Amino acid sequence: MIKELLKHARSSLKYTLITPCLVALEVVVEVMIPYVTSALIDNGIQKGNMRYVGIASVILLALAATGMLLGILSGWSATKGSTGFAKNLMDDMYANIQNFSFSNIDKFSTSSLITRLTTDVMNVRQSYQMTSRLATRCPIMLIMSVIMAFTISPKIAWIYLAVAPVLMIGLLLIIKFAFPLFEKVFKNYDKMNLVVRENVKGVRVVKSFNSQEKEIDKFKGASGDIFKNYSRAERLLALNSPLMQICVYTCMILISWFCAKYIVAGDLEVGALTALISYTMSILISLMMFSMVFVMITISKASAERIVEVLREEPSIVNPENPVYDVENGDIEFKNVGFSYVGDCNKECMSNINLSIKSGEMIGILGGTGSGKTTLVSMLPRLYDATSGEVIVGGHNVKEYDIKALRDSVSVVLQKNVLFSGTLRDNMKWGNPDVTDEQIAEALEIASATDFVNGFADGYDHYIEQGGSNLSGGQKQRLCIARALIKNPKILILDDSTSAVDTATDRKIKQGLRETKASTTKLIIAQRISSVQDADKIIVIDNGKINGVGTHDELMKTNTIYQEVYQSQVKGGDDNEND
Known about the structure:
With 579 residues, the chain is an alpha/beta fold. Helix content is 65%, strand content 10%. The strands form three sheets. It has a six-stranded mixed β-sheet.
């Protein structure tokens, strides 16, 4: 896992390598200060040698200034390295997510991906920064302080070796029990982010159903789980402090006791006692900082595993070795196609799909909820891949095409209309970055959106809020259709994308598509028979299988499902007229 993460350090790695060098020099300087202080007391102050005191004082000031400078530089390089590392992680995760197929995205929830890109990366960044400094500083300080202590008095230095194992065993036990709790915490974060995301996105529904209290209770439940698990983990980690204090004061008491005896006996100087107490603090502070590193690593280990999971996720849909870059036309053929969301041929939700559609035809697709209409058309631009059989576009299996070339040739207006924050022109550029105002005007005219767009005082520079929240449902649908048309695709898929417009506007859009996009194959998924009644062919899907194919007149004679839908909708229309 560590190797996987370090691959993403890249340019920031040089700062990470510089940091330990600076820290090591800083530690050497700091370790020398108690030793010089000891000499100052024993050889200068006690003997009244003021010249020695002056020289030692200058050396101490120089060491202190050097240590401060090295500390500043090591802090700067550690920050530079950790922030660069965090940036690379977020960039690489985001880039990998962009390559995910729908099946990859189905594996991770949206809220979980957001947590991994934010909270988890920040935890790893803090751990990375702390490790780059303290993981170098602590062992070097520990080793050098012990060496200096043995240099001054081997009889006293054994105390450190006796206390250190007690401290390390205690820290390891704390970490062992705290780590599972932190794993639960990050799963709780995913749950809380999901609640927030759903509430913010569906705030109008929440208010219309007066469900604010229910949503507050949901959030309190999610945040309460975080509080409970985090509190339990922190209570365990809080044992670090008393454990550390017990060890520190035990060492100081033992050192003071033995040193007093040796000083009275004349076997030890007063300056040596001062140095030993300083090294005691240095050793035990090093151990304490080492424990902090372990704590941070414990917290970030769960985050690191979640990050690596995203980085290692292989897109299930990739380019072939020698892809085809030109989609010749909009011919479509399904040959014995089956599909399973779990990739198992024995658990297919669609099976034995055989269809042949000529370029330029307008095809209607009808079926009940969950019958497989959206799944069927999603296989054309390879948002999903067929589990069995072949999906052929323009004479080639879709798996033979370069993915970008294929998706540039297939425009999809999904059920959920998504517009992005920015101007209307910015949203149209999703279809073509180099689109002109004339091309936008043409697409808006076909999508029957010209009238309301002309009503905007700032025209194509009209600002659209995130998700198109300042537009009506019908306006969003028509703008999404216009955006898809700007791509000038070989195949246009409208997935129930005129459900929010009236019948007259719906008819006008279909007429515009037929007249101006004669060479484009048009697949129209709809719930209303009136939306597809004039199509060249209508496909009826039931329970993942093709139930019937034909014109409106043909299906009215031969297909029971189509007849029932037609009768129910006509009867519903008559009832409305009577009302």
